[in-house]
Amino acid sequence: MSAVPILKRILAYGGILAVVIAVVGSVIGLIVAGGSGVLSALIGTAMAVVFLGITAASIVVATRIARGDFLSVAFFGIVMGAWLLKFVLFLVLVFLLKDQPWIQSTILFLSLVVAVLGTLVVDVVVIARSRLPYVSDVRLPGDAAEASPRGEQAK
Fold it and tell me: What stretches of 34-104 show up as alpha helix (H) in DSSP?
């Protein structure tokens, strides 16, 4: 069993959430600050979506490179490298955007926070409802098709 279907579901629900946050944030931004409010809401939402995508992509790549061994150094290295990339990217964006006249910083901040919290809720709900076993490659006595790891029938 792989975590890829779960990550795909997280990305799909995260995309739906991002569209909702972008629309609601843009409407609120338009009311509060005009065009700069809309742009700020869209940038904040886009940042959260990019960070969600980096997380999912890093886990998929790490799983493939580590061949499903979640305790390997390669798996942790790739996931930690992606986390560091997100952190550096976030800092760069904050310093680039903080004093721009076309950014409404409060709306950018609030849309980013709502998007991050929303994606955390999506992660929790999808993972809680998933049926990924805790243990892999386990055969219980009496399994109907006791196949070997290569797909051959046991004799």
Answer: 35-65, 73-97
Which neighbouring-strand residues pair with 147?
153
SS3 content of the chain, % helix, strand, coil (to 5): 70, 0, 25
Least confident of 41-45, 85-89, 110-114, 145-149: 145-149
The dihedral of CA 16, 82, 133, 66: what is its sign? Answer: positive
Whether the Cβ atoms of residue 89 and residue 112 lie closer than 8 Å to each other: no
pTM for the predicted model, two decimal places: 0.72
Q: How far is CA 6 from the centre of its chain?
A: 11
Tally Cβ neighbours within 10 Å of residue 1. Answer: 12
Residue 4's CB: how many other CB atoms inside 10 A? Answer: 13
The pLDDT mean for the chain works out to: 83
- The CA distance from 43 to 78, in Å, is 26
In the predicted model, what is the mean pLDDT of residues 20-40?
A: 93
**Tokens standing for residue 97:** 């955007």
User: How many whole angstroms separate alpha carbon 137 and alpha carbon 122?
Assistant: 28
